[in-house]
Structure prediction request, 396 residues.
Amino acid sequence: MSDFSFKVESSHKGMLARTGVISTPHGQIKTPAFIVVGTKATVKAMTPEMVKAAGGQAVLANAYHLYLQPGHRVVEQAGGLGKFMNWDGPTFTDSGGFQVLSLGSGFKKVIDMKGEVPLADKKERLAHVDDDGVTFYSHLDGKKLRFTPELSMQIQHAAGADVIFAFDELTSLLDPYDYQVGSLARTHAWADRCLAELGRLRSKHPGRPHQALFAVIQGAQHEDLRRETARHLAGLPFDGFGIGGAIEKDRLGDIVRWVNEELPADKPKHLLGISEPEDIFEAIANGVDTFDCVSPTRVGRNGSFYTYEGRLNITGAKFKKDFTPLLGDCDCYTCRHYTRAYIHHLTKAKEMLGATLLSIHNERFIIKLVDDIRASIENGSFQDFRAARLKKLTKY
Prediction:
């Protein structure tokens, strides 16, 4: 019997935006929700207690990175991802599909939403795709690794995450249409293999909590491919769906809508890899329930912090004697106890505490934004709230 479920609680008139509750073996997630990224079983610069205090409901780790360090069997012996990292809430694990792009055609490239960066030369890549799986060369020591849908399921099953993702091929916007078609055929075949392997693992370990398996929808910027793959995967017994791929920023809403118009309304949808406020509003308006991104802690480690008007960088000279909080009405631990001047000093001095304090603020800012969006959907004010917040944005 599955102890995973999703219930839609309210929806916004005239759009796909909705609120709901995802129930997992390790607790509930009120949606829409931002899932905090802890790639290697850690949220960079933050403890799990800090993530909880910032309002985080769930964390997401990455199967590829856990396989490299410390090894999925170590995580399994520790009692699973949550116990290993001292996180008592729901957990997600990505399949390793992102590394197909980041170590393959996007290796050493800035992966953006415009598709303007040329593909990496095949001789330079650390990931090579074929119909059976992917050959990786470890970015740590160059060791040759063979990743298949079956191995991805074995890693994620051992990690014990509540929500896991089917192994897929993430393509670039620069990949031609014919390649995208072939890639989707591979991803569909891999989806079947993931279902079969997880079924085998569940039979082998019947006492373990149910893991929800999400399919991943690819198709780049092509409406016909996005809708076709959504219809195909909707017909398979997945618990939910991830929306992946390199997405042109100005078409994000359209692409999410195409997919969600084809997928069953009673299953949760997760958008992989977004966290900027305008993207969050667009995704939620078009039916996304959860999403994740490394950006809040990444930009924090680089000295930037979120405000209602956009991101600012704390290293600016104007902050040296600014004894106000990062954001005046923010309720995060950083803003309640520290000033811009102090964090400016920490960052300029390259003290690790600066990255921690900025990361705490950035995670809380995004989590609170999504909490407020959820409330606005419930009370019917989403459109007004969205317009008011986006009108202020000038620095993203």
About this structure: The chain has a mean pLDDT of 94. The two ends are 46 Å apart (CA to CA). Residues 177-204 form the longest helix (28 residues).
